[in-house]
Amino acid sequence: MEEEQKMGKSREDSIRDLINPIRRLISSNKRVVYNFSFQHWVTRFLAIGLDYVLLFFVTGLVKDLVFANWNFSVIDFFLVMGMIAFLYFVITETVFGYTLGKRIFDLKVVTVNGNKPDFKSILIRNISKIVFVFLILDVVGSYFTAKNLHQRYVDKIAHTMVEKV
User: Max CA-CA distance within the chain?
Assistant: First the structure.
């Protein structure tokens, strides 16, 4: 009986030994490969995911209300969604400095100097969001070329970044 308890404790200890470093990594501000903060990028991913879920439903409404007689293919749907996404990101980030997803996760877009970006910078930083594949390529490209923790590749061109409020 005593041996079973020891085995149970050792299993629990080994599970804890596996989980604790992951917990520390997620909750720390340590920079992971290429100066990427794991927590920052997970938060950004969740924020943009929330924005795209919202945009998916808005695109469905626009399709049903504006293009009711048009038989959309999947490609048509995602092209319209890309245009709506581009407008959504440009307008909300220009006016407020954040999107709904960024607001929920306490993120905002600023220039590299910490100021509010102008319309041109917002337009440039959101060009990759027209087609979702470009956004993925932008993030992957950022992984390999990152010098600044909070910048995607296109953010470097626009001289902007996303920071915690």
Answer: 73
Helix (H) or strand (E) holding 47: helix 38-65
pLDDT digits (tens, 9 = 90+) for 79-136: 888 899 999 999 999 999 999 999 999 999 999 898 999 999 999 888 888 776 777 7
- Only one residue has tokens 């607001």, namely 103
Q: Helices 74-95 and 38-65, interaxial angle, to 10°?
A: 120
CA angle, 7 then 9 then 15, to 5°: 105
Model confidence pLDDT, tens digit, residues 49-65 = 999 999 999 998 988 88
CA dist 140 and 146 (Å) reads 10
In sequence order, what E strands does 18-159 have? 31-32, 36-37, 107-111
Unique residue bearing structure tokens 């400095």? 97
**In whole angstroms, how far apart are CA 1 and each of 7, 10, 64, 133?**
10, 14, 66, 57
Element (H, E) at 164: strand 160-164
Half-sphere exposure of 56 (CA within 13 A, CB side): 8
State pTM to two decimals. Answer: 0.70
